[in-house]
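Field reference: "sequence" (input) and "structure" (output). Example, Fucose 4-O-acetylase:
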Amino acid sequence: MNTPKTRDFLLDNYKALLIFLVVVGHFIEEGYDSNPFLYELKWFIVSFHMPAFIFVSGYFSKKQTSPGKLMQKLIIPYLVYELMYYLLYTLILHKETKLYLLYPKFSLWYLMALFVWRLLTPYIRRIPAAIHMPFAILAGILMGCSSMDDNFLSIPRIVVFYPFFLAGIHFNREWLTKYRNNITKVLAGLLLCLGGVFLYADPIHRSLSPKIFYGRYNYEYLELSDMDGMCIRLLCYGISFALTYLLMFLIPDRKIFCSSLGNRTMSIYLFHGLAYSSFKQATDLLEHIYTWWETLALFGFCVCLVWVFSRKPFVEFTNEVARIELPKGPRGPGKKYKRGKKGTCTF
């Protein structure tokens, strides 16, 4: 008899935190420049939330998947949601756009990136980690020197964020269990507090753009020389890796009120982008978040969105899209196609 799989609540809770930060990070994009608190919060969020998300995605991608299954679970959903964005922009928001399948809209770059990472990583892993990890980081640093279009097939982000996916692939969960104790929790908490104080007091980062963490833009766009950009991106790698690991020492490892969100991140991630695009186009409220009450109201709104998009209709729709099968050749006599297995589609 098969033993049912038990949930890893620490990683579920971590993903729940990260998906909330993804939503908040997008919804403060329009107004963080005019709100000192949101400005520092934006820096904090972008410094680790996608690297950590990608790290966790890498950890859950240790098992090799066939190219056909990857196409089914990632590329077909990518095409479906690209079409949904296109219809939203053109029919409802009346925003001029085209169906640019090679230029992912908004947050859909992550589906494209996951497909490439999961497809290539089994071959990359044949090279010793002591070689492929430094080369992946070097490639991410050098990517900023390129003049490649920043959104074509999401190539810049695929290259820049790949080290975090590889780190997740190599991560040993038992290591965290072994070293996670009261002492390491206190040290992690102190280091995070010191980092927060430094962020608040440091004037240098205010002369830069938080887009340095986006992975999408080259150094010329960020108004940096290649040498300055490479040094800053190397520093960014260090910050992102440090925060990714430190937070794992502080996240609760038991079931809590938000643990269930960790198994529903895909629906939240995909649908919040449609909501954000609609909200941004329909009103300019996001550009005018000045007071604490307005800030709290925005956070409350983000909490509501996370809850709504984690509900059954959105989760089931996301799962059904990920179960759409690729077209197959003519059936032989007596052969039947099997429907994909049921399951929850997550990152």
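The chain is about 60% helix and 0% strand.
Residues 9-322 form one domain.
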